[in-house]
Specification:
single chain, about 150 residues, alpha+beta, Pnp Oxidase, Chain A, 7-stranded antiparallel beta sheet, two-stranded antiparallel sheet, 4 helices
Length: about 150
């Protein structure tokens, strides 16, 4: 039944010094209005996990329903594929400096305010400190891709 929980697909951009990375994520939710908080669950053995812990910031780009190939590109670990942003148009967020996908529906930039490390993922609670809308469109959903992540 855990695979029946609906999820969007996003690219989480991270930065540590001059190093940039991004990964496809699906475990995201808003958890507070005041202050605006989101919960971002990240696999503990990933390089991006370590970057978030060290830098204390991340950005989430919301993907359009036609961006399945982009989501697939960011599933692969940086240590295996190298620079995932090499042929992707992005810019660094004004507040966090984290990479944001230029052709996404929009984004939120977050500063880390809390963590819960249980199981194989860490729950990163981020306060939204910047955001914007790039364009209108339908969000890419995990269930429409035929992929499964969870359970």
């Amino acid at each position: 039944m855990l695979r029946k929980i609906p999820h969007g697909l996003y690219i989480c951009g991270v930065k540590d010094g001059e190093e940039l990375n991004g990964f496809t994520m699906s475990w995201l939710m808003q958890s507070s209005f005041k202050p605006p908080l989101v919960v971002n669950c990240v696999k503990q053995d990933s390089g991006s996990h370590a970057m978030i812990k060290k830098s204390g910031v991340f950005a989430i780009s919301f993907l359009d329903s036609e961006q399945k190939d982009l989501a697939a590109k960011f599933f692969k670990p940086k240590r295996r594929v190298g620079n995932k942003f090499e042929d992707v148009e992005f810019y660094e967020g004004a507040v966090t400096g984290c990479p944001i996908i230029a052709d996404s529906l929009g984004y939120v930039e977050c500063k880390l305010v809390s963590t819960v490390e249980e199981g194989d993922h860490t729950v990163f609670v981020g306060e939204v400190i910047g955001s914007g809308v790039h364009r209108e469109g339908n969000q890419l959903l995990l269930e429409t891709t035929g992929w499964q992540y969870g359970g």
